[in-house]
Structure formats: structure tokens, C-alpha cells
Automatic annotation (TrEMBL):
GO terms for biological process: peptidoglycan catabolic process. It comes from Fuscovulum blasticum DSM 2131. One of its GO terms (molecular function) is peptidoglycan lytic transglycosylase activity. Residues 1-35 form the signal peptide. This is Murein transglycosylase.
Length: 279
């Protein structure tokens, strides 16, 4: 028919080119259809896992990681926590009070004194002073007192599935599944509500990229305080920490603290508590 997409009078070359174009279009549409869709409810989570598993496998995730994803469940507790992060909206004074800054500073000073050589060694290697590491450790988990109660893979998969910040959390899901493949964590590992790991609450993608074996036992275990603090120092150094430079607002290393947490009040608190700990 004259109205055909190819046309009655098309040359053989035109036919080949147009068929190639159609093939590429169909491939693009198929790829788009296979992309794991986000959702604001948990109703389609089981179907989403199957699509996400194919994407994860194409990015190098192995059988153990895929099995961990397929065994995960939609975490309502994670969604609730993600929607209710009220403390980051407080004033700095209120935030410091609510998060127990005086206690963190007191305990941080005591820990620094008891393990002076350890913290001096970290600063010598990475350039990050003890005060900053201890402030983060105290702020994140009360120096390891509470490191979470939520399945890591389920939490990070739920946040990837959720539409609010799926692009942000997706690399961390891939990271978590690769950590399972490596044996650094398991499908049953427990962390915080957003899937953070260990003493200083690394997101899985950051654990994969910046985690180091601080105690020399041949593995990276962020539930081990030595590995966790060495990894935290490594993260900050790799993000641009300048040894010997200041870390208060307006000073060079304050910008690096921003890489650890996006909340301004959190950044300010770490800088202030770190300075008090360092004395």
C-alpha cells in the first residue's frame, strides 16, 4: 500500500536501513519495558525483584547476591523511617541536645585517651583526626551500642524499589548484593533502617568502595570497630580530606564532612563535637 511505512518505491538499501531502525526501536522499547519500575506501595515488590535481579546480574552480581535479593522482603519499617527523619529539621542546639552531644564528647575523649596510639595511627595513615572519627562513631551508633535491627538487603532493596529516592539507593543495592557475593555480609545481615552497616553506618555501596581491613585479618568487617574506623578514615581521605587542615565551617575539610551526611545540622554537629573531643 502507498501508505506503508516502507513505501512501494523504496530501494533495497532503504529497506535495510529502515528495518535496522525498526529493530533498534523494538530493542529500545523492550529494554525500557524491562527496567525495574519504582512504586510508592509494596504491592508489586515481588514482581519488581525478578526484574531487578536481571539488572543486577547484568552488572556483575553473582548467584549468592541474586539469591539474597530474591529472598528479601518489603520493609514497611524502612519506609516509615525514611518518611520521618524529624531530627534533621531541628536547630543546631536542639539537635545537639537530642543526640546527646555532651555524652558523645565525654565518651569520645575517654576513648581517645585509652587508645591514643590507635587513633594516632589512623591520623598518621589517613590524615583524619580522632575527634572527627569519634564524633561520627558516637553519633551513628553510640560507639557501637546499637547498630540496627533491620535486614540490610531488604532495607536497601525497599528504598531502591520506592520511588522517592530510587536512583540514589540503587548503587547501594548493587553494592549490598556484591558484598553478599564476597562474603562480607550475608542475606541475613542486620543494619539500620536505611541498610547502613556497622559501627559508623556505611551504606553498602560505600562499604564496597571504601571499606578496608583495619585489623589485618584478611577481611573487611564493619561490625569490627577497627575495620569500621579505618574505613571511615579512608572514606574521608578519599573524598578529599586534607591532612592538617581545619574542619569547621568555612575551613577546607568541612566540605568533606558533607560527603558523609547531607544534613547541614549533622555536619555542624560533627565538626563541633570533633573539635571538643580533640580539645
Amino acid at each position: 500500500m502507498a501508505g506503508s511505512i516502507l513505501g512501494r518505491n523504496a530501494s533495497k538499501g532503504d529497506l535495510v536501513l529502515r528495518k535496522s531502525g525498526l529493530s533498534l526501536l523494538f530493542i529500545a522499547l523492550a529494554s525500557s519495558a524491562l527496567a525495574a519500575p519504582c512504586s510508592d506501595t509494596g504491592g508489586n515488590y515481588e514482581n519488581w525483584k525478578s526484574v531487578m535481579a536481571e539488572e543486577a546480574r547484568s552488572e556483575g552480581v553473582g548467584d549468592r547476591g541474586i539469591a539474597a535479593l530474591m529472598g528479601s522482603s518489603y520493609s514497611k519499617a524502612t519506609i516509615s523511617a525514611d518518611r520521618n527523619q524529624k531530627s534533621f529539621k531541628y536547630s543546631l542546639d536542639k539537635f545537639l541536645q537530642v543526640r546527646g552531644a555532651d555524652t558523645i564528647v565525654s565518651q569520645g575523649r575517654s576513648r581517645k585517651k585509652k587508645n591514643a596510639s590507635f587513633y594516632a595511627g589512623l591520623e598518621a595513615q589517613y590524615g583524619v583526626p580522632a575527634g572527627v572519627l569519634l564524633a561520627i562513631h558516637g553519633m551513628e551508633t553510640g560507639f557501637g551500642g546499637f547498630m540496627g535491627d533491620t535486614n540490610v538487603v531488604s532495607a536497601i532493596a525497599t528504598l531502591t524499589y520506592d520511588c522517592r529516592r530510587s536512583d540514589y539507593f540503587r548503587p547501594h543495592l548493587i553494592g549490598a548484593l556484591k558484598l553478599v557475593d564476597r562474603g562480607s555480609i550475608s542475606a541475613a545481615s542486620i543494619g539500620a533502617k536505611h541498610g547502613e552497616l556497622g559501627h559508623t553506618q556505611f551504606l553498602p555501596g560505600n562499604a564496597l568502595a571504601y571499606g578496608v581491613d583495619g585489623n589485618g585479618d584478611g577481611k573487611v568487617d564493619l561490625n569490627n570497630v577497627t575495620d569500621a574506623l579505618a574505613s571511615t578514615a579512608n572514606f574521608l581521605r578519599q573524598k578529599g580530606w586534607q591532612p592538617g587542615k581545619g574542619y569547621q565551617e568555612g575551613e577546607p575539610n568541612f566540605a568533606v564532612i558533607k560527603q558523609w551526611n547531607a544534613a547541614t545540622v549533622y555536619q555542624q554537629a560533627i565538626a563541633l563535637m570533633g573539635a571538643r573531643i580533640d580539645g
